[in-house]
């Protein structure tokens, strides 16, 4: 057969209903947002754009996003109880409508806070449970969450990317995809590095210890 | 030239003396570089989730998130036990199970998208009935799911499986066609007969619009899953009886794709036309708008 599609894309995925884009995709967005923060948030404010706001309660988009923030997968039966589990775990959350501009109709902007950190990011559920993280901390990105990634915020100066790549090479990890973006020349930049296999914790520690690196975080596939 | 053709697959299977399901299993094992037994095992696990979604929907029916549906599966099953029904146990058994899964989906239960969440009731409905009625093993049902998947792959490559792209014919139509082919092979029919069952199913779903009331996967989705399950069995029986589709399955699939693209946007999952735009549909949408958590 010449097609590259798996039969399990046709019979599957196993998921909590009712909609692959409004429920499964929403849970994956919540889970990847949690990964950028590095832990379960203490507080989470979500701006929902377009169709995401209009049907979020009926499709359980809100429950699914909170479930993702708690670290649940798309087939986790606890998705429908995510609000009460969030309350038990001390996660305060809110949803509000927003016009995020010229973005996909199923877009959400996260404002997350933990005791140690805070993060802002925007992502979209683009169909069939697929997602795209389009912006993190004001930096433009394109992350699908289908492979393991490393996210850094670093000083925008020569040699930083090479020194990160050296650490990765030393651990014999193959870089599949890399994207660097910055706000202004010579200020801060962000890097997303996707790899074939997950980066070992030691590699991440070594990268985080490099002087120009302000933050380094593993974003596991969701 | 089409990349994949159902008729070619059927010819290949018949030349090898195997079913379409077996052929799809071998192709998948080769594609993924995994042992065929392991791939079959994964499908058996998927079948376990499907069966559980039927059981949960029939034993513990819940209202949907939007409150428009819930409990229809058990209502039909009870009627079947007490009344002299027209359709009988096979058809109504499949339909009640399909309704049960659709309601599970709408109530945020665990389901298998087959091919989508919106059409997730048809395959488990048809296959649960056949498994119970004919005492089929898990392995036999898992193989039949490969038959269904083969049909879905061809439709995905040559038309569409998405309501937003092709209307409900692409979702419930495809789900029913997949179930019809699976039912034919479970009854011992040939790959060629499975193709005719696919063609006859899709012909009867052609043009079906996607018009969900209030944008929710509830009305008319659950009842279209019900009708899809019934149609799958009628088409399977016709094919097994030797009735052939004059238009070959591959041509029906391409035609369905063209019809889907010709549908106005209002009838492709936007809730701007069809049943969603009826006075009652609009009234429900207004009532639910922003108020769903209070239901």
UniProtKB/TrEMBL annotation, chain A:
Keywords: 4Fe-4S, Gluconeogenesis, Iron, Iron-sulfur, Lyase, Metal-binding. It catalyses: L-serine = pyruvate + NH4(+). GO terms for biological process: gluconeogenesis. GO terms for molecular function: 4 iron, 4 sulfur cluster binding; L-serine ammonia-lyase activity; metal ion binding. Its cofactor is [4Fe-4S] cluster. Gene3D superfamilies: 3.30.70.260, D-3-phosphoglycerate dehydrogenase, domain 3. PROSITE patterns: ACT. Pfam families: ACT, SDH_beta. Pathway: Carbohydrate biosynthesis; gluconeogenesis. It comes from the Bacteria. Residues 149-222 form the ACT domain. InterPro entries: ACT-like_dom_sf (IPR045865), ACT_dom (IPR002912), ASB_dom_sf (IPR029009), Fe-S_L-Ser (IPR051318), Fe-S_L-Ser_bsu (IPR004643), Ser_deHydtase_bsu (IPR005131). NCBIfam families: sda_beta. Belongs to the iron-sulfur dependent L-serine dehydratase family. This is L-serine deaminase. It comes from Feifania hominis.
Automatic annotation (TrEMBL), chain B:
Keywords: 4Fe-4S, Gluconeogenesis, Iron, Iron-sulfur, Lyase, Metal-binding. Pathway: Carbohydrate biosynthesis; gluconeogenesis. Belongs to the iron-sulfur dependent L-serine dehydratase family. Its cofactor is [4Fe-4S] cluster. Its EC number is 4.3.1.17. The gene is sdaAA. Pfam families: SDH_alpha. GO terms for biological process: gluconeogenesis. The keyword rRNA processing does not apply. It comes from the Bacteria. Coiled coil: none annotated. The keyword ATP-binding does not apply. This is L-serine dehydratase. It is an enzyme of class 4 (lyase). One of its GO terms (molecular function) is metal ion binding. Residues 17-276 form the Serine dehydratase-like alpha subunit domain. It catalyses: L-serine = pyruvate + NH4(+). NCBIfam families: sda_alpha. The lineage of its organism: Bacteria, Bacillati, Bacillota, Clostridia, Eubacteriales. It comes from Feifania hominis.
